[in-house]
Design brief:
Bound molecules: 3-acetylpyridine adenine dinucleotide
Structural class: alpha/beta
Strand content: 15-25%
Distance between the termini: 21 Å
Helix content: 25-40%
Radius of gyration: 24 Å
């Protein structure tokens, strides 16, 4: 174990670690725990004032997970998963944060987490085969390994609308919500965006506010979450059979158990299809993904599901014009499917107005509110539910330089390039947990994170056992993987929307499908084959 060196003149007061981990979300915390177990000296640097990543920052009203908590949780510790009690089917943000803080305490992680500190740069020192890392608190670090646990959805997208700073009331972004509760009582509120965050926040803000105006550019598909308190007998049953549930999860395309129907709609009778649609709707949440094996590749199947959801919207929303505006015209699930509690019904309230900005964009923010074309709207506060610069945004905020001083941001200017979503050629010993090119956001993130963390841990053990200093993806392996990721995405209907999967929500961002959509089991199989062949596709030195 290398002791941290705070004083050595030879290191110019650089603190030495085996590994620097950036980010204290699900990924960074487990990585720290794992590296400690193998006797490595590691430290997390975290920009927030507490651990939790996504669940630290996204405190907007209604924020909760859309994968069942019995599955959206760590499985590396049997004691943890047996002892932790989730209260609801989909845990709310505060409970997820409580869970994360419990994990920090249980595994004594806090002593190796530096909060309130951003990593600003990470430069590979070729001569010493070390990463030289600088932090916003002035710390200079050197580490053999640099592990980016920066999250896929952590760089808030704040559209550059003229006049933004002129607004006289408070402006909130769902992804950077204040820690103190925001009181909307008696307020006129404007909310921009109708993605997952808005779909969760809108019903609750509508209940509190005097009036809520929703500015919608693209309507989204949403299915009922049917959140509820967890039945103790159900929990007991799962806990008695947790391994079986986790195994089913890992065998599923999305790394969680959706009780999926393996049949394509083309193999089913009209009666079976109807029954399956109704069954999925009743199950609620992202189980809807499990209904038909061909929904992402067969336009007809996709249209049929889309029509079904549109009919449900028409049933829920009383005003036919509003129902029509709320009905997505896009391919089903080519934007992330949302799970809601009373979202569409909220538009039946007298104090909620929907404004279509698909043809005329918001032209300006004014001191009093905002303008859409010449039409002015007045508000006491504004909420941006405008999402994130996904997958690459948080990495691009750090000046990362590899061999020959090459910048990662420059290398990725035409879209991210990785081998297995884990490493990028020319950046030895730099790892991205759930990076672009890995299943990540298409799966249960916690399960995907655990797979990546364990894989990275195995790589570091292998390097140690074989007295090797560096691992670097080869350009050939990376090119082949990037082609494969693109090819798999191109065979689906997923390229059809202007989604954040494609980077299409960020003006000027190259449109490249970033997550790997070949499914969790084939991805894990590929990773394991690579390892079995002595880390094929990497140069070890
Ligand atoms: O962000 P989004 P999000 N002018 O990008 C609109 C996860 N998540 O924070 O679609 C006007 O989905 C934009 O319009 P358009 C989940 O993976 C999970 O809601 O680009 N509008 C869109 O309506 C999710 O997918 C959970 O035309 C603008 C909205 O803002 C991901 O996070 C909960 C605009 C952004 O929607 C992101 O969700 C929440 C502009 N200039 C989030 N720019 C759960 O677990 C953007 N928009 C349940």
């Amino acid at each position: 174990m290398t002791a941290p060196d705070h004083t050595s003149p030879a290191s110019n007061n650089t603190i030495a670690f085996d590994a620097v981990i950036v980010g204290a979300g699900f990924a960074g915390l487990y990585m720290l725990h794992k590296l400690r177990e193998q006797g490595l000296m590691a430290r997390i640097y975290e920009a927030g004032s507490g651990p939790g990543g996504t669940w630290f920052w996204n405190r907007y009203p209604g924020a909760r997970v859309d994968i069942e908590s019995m599955q959206y949780s760590y499985q590396f510790s049997e004691e943890l998963q047996q002892e932790w009690e989730w209260s609801e089917r989909y845990a709310p943000q505060a409970e997820l944060l409580e869970y994360i803080n419990h994990v920090v305490e249980r595994f004594d992680l806090a002593r190796d987490i530096q909060l309130n500190t951003r990593i600003e740069s990470a430069v590979f020192d070729e001569a010493n085969k070390q990463w030289q890392v600088s932090a916003s608190n002035g710390d200079r670090l050197s580490a053999k390994y640099c592990i980016m646990a920066t999250g896929c959805l952590s760089a808030a997208n704040k559209p550059d609308i003229p006049g933004l700073s002129s607004f006289t009331g408070p402006v909130y972004h769902t992804g950077e919500w204040p820690h103190d509760a925001v009181d909307f009582a008696g307020k006129r509120v404007g909310i921009i965006g109708t993605g997952s965050s808005a779909i969760q926040a809108i019903p609750i803000i509508a209940e509190q506010a005097d009036h809520l105006t929703v500015f919608q550019r693209t309507p989204n598909f949403s299915v009922p979450a049917y959140n509820k308190a967890l039945d103790p007998d159900y929990v007991k049953d799962i806990k008695q059979n947790y391994t079986a549930l986790r195994d089913r999860g890992k065998q599923g395309f999305t790394a969680f158990d959706t009780q999926s129907n393996d049949k394509a709609a083309t193999e089913m009778s009209p009666e079976e299809i109807k029954a399956e649609l109704n069954k999925r709707w009743q199950m609620g949440g992202l189980n809807f993904y499990g209904g038909f094996a061909d929904f992402m590749v067969n336009q007809q199947t996709n249209d049929m599901i889309a029509d079904f959801v549109r009919e449900k919207i028409a049933e829920k929303v009383k005003d036919p014009d509003t129902a029509k505006l709320l009905s997505p015209k896009t391919v089903f699930a080519c934007k992330r499917l949302c799970a809601d509690t009373g979202y569409f019904e909220t538009y039946n309230r007298d104090n909620v107005t929907l404004v279509d900005i698909s043809k005329t964009a918001i032209s300006a923010i004014t001191p009093e509110g905002l303008k859409v074309g010449d039409q002015a709207y007045a508000f006491d506060c504004l909420v941006f539910a405008t999402g994130f610069d996904a997958m690459t945004g948080s990495l691009n905020k750090i000046d990362i330089r590899g061999i020959d001083g090459q910048s990662l941001k420059d290398k990725w200017s035409a879209g991210p390039r990785t081998y297995l979503g884990l490493c990028s050629a020319g950046f030895p010993n730099l790892f991205t947990i759930s990076g672009p090119g890995s299943p990540s956001v298409f799966t249960n993130m916690v399960t995907s994170i655990e797979q990546h963390v364990e894989y990275i841990s195995d790589i570091l053990a292998y390097l140690g056992e074989h007295k090797l200093s560096t691992i670097n993806a080869t350009k050939e392996a990376e090119d082949a993987w990037v082609s494969h990721v693109n090819e798999v995405a191109s065979a689906t209907l997923l390229n059809a929307c202007s989604s954040w999967y494609l980077g299409a929500n960020i003006p000027g961002k190259e449109r490249v499908f970033m997550p790997y959509v070949g499914g969790f089991p084939p991805y894990v199989e590929k990773c394991n084959e690579v390892a079995e062949r002595g880390y094929e596709g990497f140069t070890l030195a």
